[in-house]
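Deviation from plan, reported transparently: adenosine monophosphate complex.
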Amino acid sequence: MKQRIVLLGPPASGKGTQADRLAAKFGIPHVSTGVLLRSECARGTILGQAADSWTRQGLLVPDELAIRIITTWMSEHGTRFIFDGFPRSVAQAEHLDLALSGLAAPLDLLIVLDLTDEEIRRRTSSRLSCLNCGATFSAPLDTLAEGWNCPRCGAALIRRDDDRPEAVEKRLEVYRELTAPVIGYYEQTSPHLLHRVNAGEGSDAVFTAISTLVFLK
Ligand code: AMP
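Because the crystal trials were delayed, the predicted structure below was used instead.
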């Protein structure tokens, strides 16, 4: 079974949802740099204050900050993980490879969740998120509204600032410019680990496909 998994993909491609489901099924810790950063922002920490202006606008926080947050997480939790939202630049991917090779714990699975821009816009326009546990819900589908309690942990649900249409357009641009090249990087360095899945299929179909990769490949 795979132990060090990276989920790549554009905003709202289901990385968080699928990582949560994989974590529950296989007992591998799920870590989302976006969730960690939002929690730092909500608690008003120095790191959160530094990250806030970038995340609000849909821009990436500087590489050093993202790397620091993930390195701290690994030093506290070890090297079994499902990363969701990291790495998001080639510099971050190179740093991760270096850090993991120093620990003799290389990545063993890379999954790209592909989704069209049209579907990304549709999903982000109806998405509600929990700042506490990171769960996301589709508002009309789940008949939830902003301010309601998260069905999973009870905290208040919010509409993320960066799910506003202007910020989503920015995030798409940033994804194309900085994060899509990470896929190219892994195509060069670890093509045998890389698998693409159509995230436009239903959540269950995507989960079945990636569970098979985690368990068998
Ligand atoms: P997410 O919840 O994954 O959509 O991330 C929300 C926001 O957090 C992103 O738009 C970035 O501003 C920031 N962020 C999350 N992960 C990273 C990362 N690996 N590198 C830089 N910025 C990040």
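The longest strand covers residues 109-114. We consider this an acceptable substitute for the interim report.
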